[in-house]
Amino acid sequence: MSSTPVPANFTATLELFSLPGNYVSAEPYGSGHINDTYVVNYLGTNGQAKRYVAQRINTNVFRNVTALMDNVRRVTAHLNQKAGAQSRELTLIPATDGAPAAIDGEGRWWRLYDFIEGAHTVDRVTNEAEAREAACAFGNFQAQLADLPGDRLQETIPNFHHTRSRFENFRRAVADNKAGRAASVQADIEFAFSREADADVLLTLLAKGEVSERVTHNDTKINNVMLDNTTKRSVAVIDLDTVMPGLPLYDFGEMMRTSASSTFEDDAEAGNMHVELPLFKVLVEGYLSSAVGDVLNATERAHLGFAGKLMSYENGLRFLTDYLEGDTYYKIKYPEHNLVRTRTQFALVRSIEANTDAMSRILEPFVSP
Ligand code: ADP
Ligand code: GN1
Ligand code: MG
Description:
Blueprint: H1 10-14, E1 22-28, E2 36-43, E3 49-56, H2 65-83, E4 92-93, E5 102-103, E6 109-114, E7 119-120, H3 128-144, H4 163-176, H5 186-194, H6 201-207, E8 214-216, E9 225-228, E10 234-237, E11 244-246, H7 248-259, H8 277-289, H9 298-302, H10 304-325, H11 337-354, H12 356-367
Antiparallel strand pairs: 1-2, 2-3, 3-6, 4-6, 5-6, 7-9, 8-11, 9-10
Helix pairs in contact: 3-7, 3-8, 4-10, 7-8, 7-10, 8-12, 10-11
The protein binds adenosine-5'-diphosphate, 2-acetamido-2-deoxy-1-O-phosphono-alpha-D-glucopyranose (GN1) and magnesium ion.
Residues 32-34, 61, 219, 221, 239, 241-242, 265, 315 line the site of 2-acetamido-2-deoxy-1-O-phosphono-alpha-D-glucopyranose (GN1).
């Protein structure tokens, strides 16, 4: 659950959106590391209960909210238009002035979505069918955005998956040692330095034109897919803050990091973390059987396993950077939380490396069918 309580003046915030009916209650919702999410209960003018999702946007992370919300507005409109009237795609409720987000009396940014009813998210994959469904949903999501009208989407966080840039941030954090923690995490820092060359692999392929930029989701955790409570089929891809130009391999890699791994990203026992090959296989099958399967070339397919390693490494670098800088980016639940996350990510990197051959064998039929 989100740890941030409902703000005292929350009803004044909701008035920025002129919702029909009467406010009943609100409570913290979800388990994200960045924004604050709340479920809002209303009694509609027809006497029926109606729910919304309100999110306070983290402006420390998203510096240009106008650009961010312009992306979200365009993407949700496009997905809803493609899916038709019966769809349960994410739908923004505009503020009273028509804008896709509003500022409260204390200068905080808020947005509101219709609550997607009859569906749920899971924080961990519980079976192969779920992993397949999520992979297929993220693949189709990307394919649906291939013809998004208008200009290139804005980069809501510059260099988000530019692993070289993430590495340089890490290098600087070690040198600056703001929180005075570097000496106590030497082994973790050494591990991060030892894998520096990985940071450039996909960027080099991109520069050579061997892999292509597309509109991608960039935060393809399993809990960003809503699954129907009855059919268990995906009904919507959510959490669209980082939808922007990227590589499909980043999406697959993030999926693999979170859905083909043996434990939570912050399991305090890093030894519990390893790659689950059967789930990796299911993710590959699910992703490539989706509409995106038609557009990925052999180089992209051959790097699916590497992408999981890269995203595990990149997240480890980011957690370690935040730990060295004094925990200014991610929400933490205890002082060593970012260090625990780092070690568990690096354990996953090691496990993926140890399983490189096995993953290549799984990918073989998809690379040269
Ligand atoms: P975060 O960036 O914090 O991960 P999300 O947008 O993913 O924020 O929302 C957090 C959680 O809230 C999701 O995992 C999902 O369970 C729930 N959620 C978000 N949007 C909706 C929605 N429109 N309808 C129902 N549940 C939602
Ligand atoms: C953050 O918001 P959330 O919890 O879905 C982060 C991702 C990381 C993830 C690690 C905008 O995602 O990039 O992979 O934590 N989002 C942002 O769990 O930085
Ligand atoms: Mg999320």
